Amino acid sequence: MSKFVMPMQAAERVAQLGQRIRVARIRRGWSVADLASKAGINRNTLTALELGKTGTAVGVCFTVLWALGLDKSLDAVADPDSDLHGKALEASRRPTRAGKARKASDDYDF
């Protein structure tokens, strides 16, 4: 049985996201109970998300962003059109030229 250890950079990003969600909640003047109710989750779950606990489900995060009206900000997350590295790798695997030119068939020459 392997034990997953989140990379430090990823854990820091999760913590930053939690802080941003907390700031958005406070700017709206909502309590933890208010936002948890709007998102349909437990207050403890919201607190864990705001504290950057890495075990919080991604679905909870998306739901809270939706309740805050920030779900459109997710449109850029992992957008394939913005993935320059992936595009470069894909392009490097494409053939450099098309197949051999084929001679036209005269089977239908009248």
From TrEMBL:
Database matches in InterPro entries: Cro/C1-type_HTH (IPR001387), Lambda_DNA-bd_dom_sf (IPR010982)
- Which Pfam families does the entry mention? HTH_19
Which residue ranges does the record annotate as region Disordered? Answer: 85-110
For this chain, one GO molecular function annotation is: DNA binding
SMART domains registered for this protein in UniProt: HTH_XRE
Instruction: Give the superkingdom in one word.
Output: Bacteria
Residues forming the HTH cro/C1-type domain are: 21-77
- This chain's protein is named Transcriptional regulator with XRE-family HTH domain
What species was this sequence derived from?
A: Variovorax boronicumulans
- List the taxonomic lineage: Bacteria, Pseudomonadati, Pseudomonadota, Betaproteobacteria, Burkholderiales
